[in-house]
From TrEMBL:
The keyword Coiled coil does not apply. This is AraC family transcriptional regulator. Pfam families: ExsA_N, HTH_18. The keyword DNA-binding applies. It comes from Brevibacillus porteri.
Length: 299
């Protein structure tokens, strides 16, 4: 799997444009529960805007986060914390010929807050937060998954209130079954501000907006822009764009990646826009670097 050759999907919003999702239950127009089935292997990259609980019923789901590789097999579940970029590869079980069948539950902070109040739960900080963890699925969770099947027959007819109730039901099953996932899900929001430089560096090549970066740093958008200006003496849009373009130039010069691959791997989401801003910065389009004619002009 390679980040450099795959467009990054912003999940869950970006999943509506992908070919592997075949059923979805939504709240406020955003996917909350997705059912997916693949007859063939599929791979790509996602930036998770919400926590994700993945339950695999059949097949193998491989996740790469940094230098860690995790495999989720039939009747296992994986919890992934929000605000991370992951590579994924989905495939059927070896020698079985079957595809992958699973469910993805996207868990927003508001849902978790409501669940904590509903269950009168006193959350605690985990001693060592784990961004990705794999655990077995018990009988109660499997029966819960079966109870969702009728909802995917007519998803547009399911009211949001019922979707929320089903998510709450899942959370009760999960915290009852696994203490580690429970502590990861239900830790209270940290009040301290994250350092702007740390947040920006960690997400520089991800397709995140300024709103996303402000949220991750614990600031409002206006405060984020003001604090960034003080720290870097320039606007966040200009600084981030130039850093991405510098990285793009490096990749175009030193790798065999195409212009489109470099565009998506450096956080840009539109190839035409990428080519325009690249030319504005360096004086020639990125395609010239691939042909070699632009290299002399950079010396």
């Amino acid at each position: 799997m390679s980040v450099g050759t795959t467009r990054i999907i912003k999940a869950p919003q970006g999943l509506t444009k992908t070919e592997f999702k075949i059923g979805s239950l939504k709240m406020k127009g955003i996917s909350v529960i997705d059912f997916c089935f693949d007859a063939e292997a599929t791979k790509g990259t996602m930036f998770l805007k919400d926590h994700l609980l993945l339950i695999v019923l059949q097949g193998v789901y491989t996740i790469r986060y940094g230098d860690q590789v995790h495999k989720v097999r039939s009747n296992e579940m994986m919890f992934l914390q929000k605000s991370i970029a992951i590579e994924f590869e989905k495939s059927g079980e070896l020698d079985s010929g079957d595809g992958l069948n699973g469910l993805m539950f996207f868990l927003k902070e508001e849902i978790l807050d409501d669940f904590i109040k509903l269950g009168d739960i006193k959350p605690t900080y985990p001693e060592s937060p784990v961004p990705v963890s794999v655990n077995p699925v018990n009988t109660c969770i499997l029966e819960y998954v079966e109870s969702l099947e009728p909802y995917f027959d007519n998803p547009d007819e399911i009211v949001e209130g019922l979707v929320k109730v089903k998510v709450m039901e899942l959370l009760f099953h999960v915290i009852d079954a696994n203490e580690q996932i429970s502590s990861q899900l239900l830790q209270p929001k940290r009040k301290e501000w994250n350092n702007i430089d740390k947040v920006v560096e960690e997400n520089l090549m991800n397709p995140v907006s300024l709103h996303d970066l402000a949220y991750l740093s614990g600031r409002s958008l206006s405060t984020f822009k003001r604090d960034f200006q003080v720290m870097y003496n320039t606007s966040p849009i200009k600084w981030i764009r130039n850093r991405r373009l510098d990285k793009a130039k490096e990749l175009l010069t030193n790798t065999s990646l195409s212009v489109t691959d470099v565009c998506f791997s450096t956080g840009f989401e539109n190839a035409a826009h990428f080519s325009k801003v690249f030319k504005d910065r360096f004086g020639f389009p990125p395609s010239e670097l691939k042909k070699g004619s632009g290299l002399k002009r950079t010396m």
